[in-house]
Amino acid sequence: DLTEEVARLEGYDAIPSALPPAPAGRGLTRRQKLLRRVGRALAAHGYAEVVPYPFMAESAPDALLLPDGDVRRRAPRIANPVSDAEPLLATTLLPGLLAVLARNVGRGIGDVAVFQVAPVFRTRGNDPAPRPGVESRPGPEVLDKLDAVLPDQPLHLAAVLTGAREPRGHWGSGRPATWADAVQVARTVAETAGGQVEVRRGDAPPWHPGRCAELVVGGEVVGWAGELHPRACAALEVPARTCAVELALEPLLATAVEHVAAPGLSTFPPANVDVALVVTDGTAAADVERALREGAGELLEGIRLFDVYTGPQVGEGRRSLAYQLRFRAPDTTLTDEQVNAMRDAAVAEAAARTGATLRGA
């Protein structure tokens, strides 16, 4: 008010227009660098960043098949919404992203891959916010009450995709987007930030049972990825078998590193060995892989699951997981005896922790 009064009395022409000097040498914060790095990585993988409105309709939780009591149903209501059709602050990024996807598909763009990084909003309780008067500045007690009813605003990343993940052309027939591509988004984000995400079998709406992965960072479930449930696709008017991923970024950013160290390079040849382990259907492949990795020792350079078999050869209620283990030493060529010893140690650790047995043994 004082500034406006000075301008009114003296005139805007009498007030010089001078920009304040920017302080030098500060640059982007560590958090800003990490978020930009993640955005560039997803863009390099073919995803376009979009910024939908942070609102959702009252019908959105039902369309997403969210059960009663789900935290994503705790949506703050806006007193004066931009549109009566979306009077709630979004508790998940999926409604906005899926609306973007549906709009593009409706306009003839069948291959869509978009992502968003933004906060979501979740109420802390049912207490109404106090309405301070305008005759004086609110006191500390009123300000504390206002802060107490502000919604939680965790930072999330979400991506949705449908249609062709790899286009068809003279180079090949291409392939459609699958739930594995949604899981790969989480892995890409973790690798880019220098952190680690564990992928386990999951079951959470609106994802399809059996095609849903649970994303874990530091023992905490931070999100899910996979193929959306057919009923959710129909309610949200998106193509069948649309895939999506959403995860909370704060736990991942907390464990991330600003500068990712390049791996060491060895001029000696690798030694690849395959192992097929038989486990029960309830045993997660991620648990078997973790046990193999820890049992193999420091010279294990990589591990890859390349085959899953179920059938009469392994018995009912069981499946075979085939892994390729790649060993390499920095200063010598590994002998067969050394490779076999590390393989046997990895298999023994998997057997002790998951009950796995060598197929054919």
Q: Main sheet: which strands, in order across?
A: 1-4-5-11-10-9-8
What is the residue-mean pLDDT, rounded to a whole number?
91
Radius of gyration: 26 Å
List low-pLDDT spans: none
The string of secondary-structure elements, in order, is: HHEEHEHEHEEEHEEEHEHEHEEHE
User: What structural class should be given to the helix and strand makeup?
Assistant: alpha+beta
Distance between the termini: 84 Å
Estimate the global geometry from the Cα principal axes.
Answer: globular
Give the beta-strand count.
15
Percent helix among the residues?
A: 25-40%
- Portion of residues in beta strands equals 15-25%
Work out the helix count.
Answer: 10
For the largest beta-sheet, the strand count, sense and barrel status come to: 7 strands, mixed
Describe the secondary-structure layout.
Elements lengths: L1 H9 L19 H15 L3 E2 L5 E2 L3 H4 L24 E2 L4 H13 L5 E8 L20 H10 L5 E8 L1 E3 L8 E2 L2 H15 L4 E4 L5 E11 L2 E9 L1 H7 L6 E6 L1 H6 L15 E10 L4 H12 L3 E10 L8 E10 L8 H19 L2 E2 L3
Parallel strand pairs: 1-4
Antiparallel strand pairs: 2-3, 4-5, 5-11, 6-7, 8-9, 9-10, 10-11, 12-14, 12-15, 13-14
